[in-house]
């Protein structure tokens, strides 16, 4: 039979006044410490910057939601009628927060040693296949470093259009590299992401052009 603490970790605020928000706060810190220690211990030659980017990639909302789906947490969530109707059991933010709360419940009931065992277990495959330092850099940084390595000018970014309602806008950004006659576009729900997409598109073109030379 599930403990009250574990049941609370699966309870969204829409379902009951004894919900999991405080546990999310605790679980976030417990997870961060465990992942930080694992990376620090097993990657003695990694730089501080690389370790920071690795940790960020492992504890962000998308990764947590992926792991929550792998554990089928969505099947066990306690949601209010409104959240159930709107598909809250599939929402990344709810899934990631719930996983943090579950980690907190293990910590509260079993202690740090068991919480660490649990986190290491659910992260096993991700720890085995960590991305390279270059892969973790954002597309704009990767593009700029690639161009500077060939002593070329840095790219120019421009927001070319905004469409949609105020609460659901779509941004289109351009990345231009005049010296290479390259102009790419990116489209996203935020200006920053649109620029990153345009930069990624340009990066792939530049990288391929350099390979041919």
What's the helix and strand layout?
Blueprint: H1 4-9, H2 21-42, H3 48-59, H4 61-70, H5 81-85, H6 92-110, H7 112-122, H8 124-128, H9 133-136, H10 139-149, E1 156-163, E2 170-177, E3 182-188, H11 191-212
Helix pairs in contact: 2-3, 2-6, 2-7, 4-6, 6-7, 10-11
Short recap of the structure:
With 213 residues, the protein is mainly alpha-helical.
| Beta-strand content | 5-15%
Cα distance spanning the termini: 65 Å
Number of separate helices: 11
- Can you write the helix and strand succession as a string? HHHHHHHHHHEEEH
Question: Within the CATH hierarchy, at the fold level, what is the topology of the largest domain?
Answer: Ribonuclease iii, N-terminal Endonuclease Domain, Chain A
What CATH architecture of the largest domain would you give? Answer: Orthogonal Bundle
**Which class of the largest domain in CATH terms?**
Mainly Alpha
* Secondary-structure class: mainly alpha
Mean pLDDT: 92
Spatial arrangement of strands, main beta sheet: 1-2-3
Biggest beta sheet attributes: 3 strands, antiparallel
